[in-house]
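Subject: Predicted fold for LacI family transcriptional regulator, 337 residues

User T.R. writes:
Posting the sequence so we have a shared reference for the thread.
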Amino acid sequence: MKDEKRMRFVSAEQVAQLAGVSRSAVSRTFTPGASVSAATREKVLRAAEELGYHVNDLARGVLANQSRLVGIVATKPELGFRAHLIAALTKALIARGSIPILINTGQTEEELLAAQKMLIGHRAEATIIISGSPPASFFELAQRNGQPLVVIGRSETEADHVSAGNSEASGRAAELFLAAGCRRLAVVGSKSGTPSIAERENAFLAAAKAGGAETMAVRGPESDYDGGLIAARDLFAGGEKPDAIFCANDLLAFGVMDFIRRETELRIPEDIGLIGFDDVPEASWLSYELTTFRQDPGIMAARAVQLLEHRLQNPDAARGYERVVPELVTRKSFVPR
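User M.O. replies:
I've generated the C-alpha cells; pasting them so everyone works from the same file.
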C-alpha cells in the first residue's frame, strides 16, 4: 500500500512506449534545436499530452549545472514594504525564467549561513538578500562556490546591491518640516538596528539639527505597528511635545497616528504633522492618508534582476550598484508649504 501511494511522475520512457518511439526521440522532442522529424514530434507530443508528461527541469538543470533556482533570503517576509518587494521580485524572476525560492530566516550569522548552505546545496544559481547584515563568511562562501549575490536595501561593497535613497529622503523630510515652521522635530525608529532604519534616523536628525530644530528620537522594539505604538507612548510620556514626526517606515507611522488620535487631544495635521517612508498600500487608506516617501518595489526588483543578469553574464565585472531615491507622496498627514 505504501509503495502504491508513493509519488511517481510520468517518465520519458512511458511516453516513448505509448508513442512507439525511442527514449532518445522523446528527449530530442523536448530539447530546443534538436533534430527530430515532424511525424515523430507529433506522436511524442500526443503521447505526452495523454499521459500528462512534463520535462524534468530539475534533472536537466543539475546536468547542465544551471538549476535556474534563485534564493530570496528574508526575515519576516510578511511585513510591510518587504512583502511587496518579495512579490515584485518573484514576479520579475519568473518573467526571467528563474524559479524563486523564499527562505524565511532570522538575522543572526548562524541563521543566515544555514539559509545560504541550503541554497548552495540545491545549486541555486544566485541569492538575493533583503534582510539583515550578512557576515563576511556569507560572502566568502558564495565566492568559493561562484554564486552571485545581490543585496537590496543597503550598500554592500562585497556584492552587487540596490540601495534606497534613505538619507536623501529622510533629510528632505526634515527640510520640509522646517520650511513649514516646525521647530520641535521627532523621529520614530526601532531598536532592530537594521541598516536602512538607522540610516533614515541619522539622516533626519542631522538635517533637523543643521536647520536649528530641537530634536527627539524614540525607538520601538521592532519596525512594525506595535513598535510605533510603544514609541509614541514614550514620546508623549512627558515634557514638550513635537510639532512634527518623521517615522522610519509606514508601519511605525500607523502605530504613532493611532496612538495620537486615541490617547491625546492633538489633531493631525493641524497640531502635529507626520511623514512616513515606503508608501505601502495602507498609507492611502482613509484611516491614515499618510504623507510618505514612496519606494517602488517594481523598480527595485527590476534593478536587482538586471544586476543578477549582468553578473551571470560577466562573472569578473566590477560590483554593480543601483540607488533608487524615493519620491514624496503628499496626502493629508502633512502638506508641505
